[in-house]
Amino acid sequence: MKDHKIKLGLMGMGTVGTGVIRLVGGHQEDLFKQTGVEVEIGRILVQDRNKERLISVASDLITDDPYRLLHDPDIDVIVEVMGGIEPAKSYILEALEQGKHVVTANKDLMALHGAELLKKAAEKNCDLFYEASVAGGIPILRALVEGFSSDRITKIMGIVNGTTNYILTKMSQEGASYEDVLKEAQSLGYAEADPTSDVEGLDAARKMAILSTLGFHVGMNLDEVSCKGISQVTQEDILYGQRLGYTLKLIGIAKRDDDLIEVSVQPTMLKNSHPLASVNGVFNAVYVYGEAVGETMFYGPGAGELPTATAVVSDLVTVVKNMKLGVNGRGMVAPYKEKKLKSDDEVWAKYFLRLIVEDKSGVLAQLTTKMAEEKVSLEQVIQHPTKDGKDKAELIMITHLSSKKSISHILNELEQLEFVSEIKSVYRVEGSE
Amino acid sequence: MKDHKIKLGLMGMGTVGTGVIRLVGGHQEDLFKQTGVEVEIGRILVQDRNKERLISVASDLITDDPYRLLHDPDIDVIVEVMGGIEPAKSYILEALEQGKHVVTANKDLMALHGAELLKKAAEKNCDLFYEASVAGGIPILRALVEGFSSDRITKIMGIVNGTTNYILTKMSQEGASYEDVLKEAQSLGYAEADPTSDVEGLDAARKMAILSTLGFHVGMNLDEVSCKGISQVTQEDILYGQRLGYTLKLIGIAKRDDDLIEVSVQPTMLKNSHPLASVNGVFNAVYVYGEAVGETMFYGPGAGELPTATAVVSDLVTVVKNMKLGVNGRGMVAPYKEKKLKSDDEVWAKYFLRLIVEDKSGVLAQLTTKMAEEKVSLEQVIQHPTKDGKDKAELIMITHLSSKKSISHILNELEQLEFVSEIKSVYRVEGSE
Question: Any idea which positions bind L-homoserine (chains A, B) (predicted)?
């Protein structure tokens, strides 16, 4: 910080980077009034200096040499919005090594290497903030770290991936197939050409690793988040859910019972009365349940140029305020609780099952007897002939609370039964306790 | 702060005070891990030392002498949860004068005298936090001050009074009358014996004064918030709203167009698709629209022992962290924008009108001609005979955007018209732009 001016080094000039340039340029007066210093962009790192840009900036600001940011003593803060693991990780480590504060929107990096990066930041008395990495424009990390600092959180449920929420919303509202909506989402820019990371739930799993680390004060690793995507979801599943009063959503669930923790992402039948059930389109929302506060929900845009840039620049304001007070890197709380993960017989939920069985008398009785042996009992059952007839019936069941282990067992057992033709689908059920 | 121990002086041992005692006592380990110091209750001020309490505390902690808190050098922080203007205001001023930090849940006081108290806190390098004063368990003040520090907020809409939301929800869902639901709310403890402050909108107006001050960076006075309550709301209004796709809610609206501001509280016809329309019962929610972030919403419990105490103790955690860093009273941003309030011809909205008119030909034509002269045009009209017949018709109209001044004029004009028997109701309409 020289002459009451803060210079930032911006790494990446894609969607979010462009938003940061717009906000820092356009909100000069507000930033000055709130921090007492001028904030300006000192240099911008890009891969290709000759690429056409969405916004025009002075050409001498642009470089393809990271060290013109990392080793420039005039640059106080690095804003990393390039994404991906490498070279972003090496650049951030070097920035911290050089005593520069870092703001990042990089969920992949924070989910995989957050602990290492935060440790380095603490060693160097540097700030490392990453509000934009989860649920774009929603200030949910601040809410967990500060707003609920006095409470003990027991459950976090999130719609934290806009692409999949858009696809499921369209499938629910318009009756379209997964494949058709995915194509449409790709043409609108809501889904990438290779949509795997979104539709298979990995993107949501990264965000749940970050949210559960902050919410439960444990260091949650990405590979400890069990993960299933939406590519197998069918129109039939959605319709049967609706008939029973449920909306199918890709939900990240982090749950704590005493000191035992589970974190997962999966398509989930959500009771319509749950606040998350009406979060539609590309919107994100995070539902937080605290022992003292009870039910809360935070709703907003999960992505996009300006919403994500808002989170980045708000983090930047905090960095600058901390610089003025000389307290960077000193407000962070490292995970302090021992991590105990639930085994499959400790993860309890209700389940939605859809089976095709032979349509003859006694089948339902045999089935429920089998399930009772595994201590799985039923809350609701619908049975009717399949559309194509042929002596088959479709069974839709919602179980009472069952352990994940029991459900796995019973599914194995059912597959062996001669009168069960096919197990069509299995979903976790939430919001109907 | 002595020997790594922080002592707080608690003023008030009602609902919220009891919650604070429970949280501080029950969450010792978490508070210590997050702040690095022990936090304990040093003394509790009560009005009547002999009153029966919900929770037992050591009797030597309890006093009816405020100076045993205010002038005790061992007490670092005052937590004020007694409510009301005096003596709370004098106590807080004296606490700040003595260099003690203050956390308060007192919306009445902050709405009326917040500027004076915050000025004193800044002079004395003391923290004065009041998250609990608006929407109990929802960390909305932090979101406005920190989460959206980089953005320019243009609209805040809030369901910030649980009592009135409970009453309107019950009236909507069960068809009960205002009077019956109010009685029920009183018997359940959701409404006070004298419900005026809640049902006439004053409580919500106080919260909107606080929210708009923080959101727009201007010093908003309580008497600049125009305010109308729900005591005149009828079952007919709710039903006609539902027929047109609207839910009637008591909504606080703070809106900025360029640098012109309006803040009001009134029963409002809210389009069902708006995120606030499905916030029911005693829950609160605050909808925030920012130029960059777009639509966000924060949902949770607006009151109650533990939710409100969560906000108080989370503020306390921030105070303690600031004490450790030696930066109390230095993070606050005073209002820095010039306040320009809209006049009535600058406040634009759609309106819902319900009239009883004579049921004869040409009435609607004359009415709409009259309205067109005032530049009020109609988006929707329903006309039908009144239930009791007698040559009268009921007209339900939703206007296009009109100024508040035009609407006032036209209502005066309509009253003069011989064929208009009665103006039954007028509501602002939101969420259908």
Answer: 192
